[in-house]
Design brief:
- This is SHOCT domain-containing protein.
- It comes from Actinomadura miaoliensis.
- It is a single chain.
- Helix content is 70%, strand content 0%.
- The chain is mostly helical.
- The chain folds into two domains: 41 residues; 34 residues.
- Helix 2 runs antiparallel to helix 3.
- 0% of the residues are buried.
């Protein structure tokens, strides 16, 4: 025995130390992924498909780039060309 502590104490302290450092590393990895993922949000990746023309038109209408009449006309034109 060392300083009056048994082997169970040292084993327990070793397990707690490994868990502590594991949590620290996991927290750093999660933080890096969160910060790194925030920059790429909405950008193209390997699994995304390009937006359809109707979706682009709807986004432009939502932003106010296209008025309601022009939106309807272009939407009809897009649907007629299918």
């Amino acid at each position: 025995m060392m300083w009056g502590y048994g082997p169970g104490y040292w084993l327990g302290m070793g397990v707690i130390m490994v868990l502590f450092w594991g949590l620290i590393v996991a927290g750093i990895v999660a933080l890096v992924r969160y910060i790194g993922g925030a920059r790429h949000t909405g950008g193209p990746d390997a699994t995304s498909r390009p937006p359809r023309a109707e979706e682009v038109l709807a986004e432009r209408f939502a932003r106010g780039e296209v008025d309601a009449d022009e939106y309807r006309q272009r939407l009809e034109l897009l649907r007629a060309r299918r």
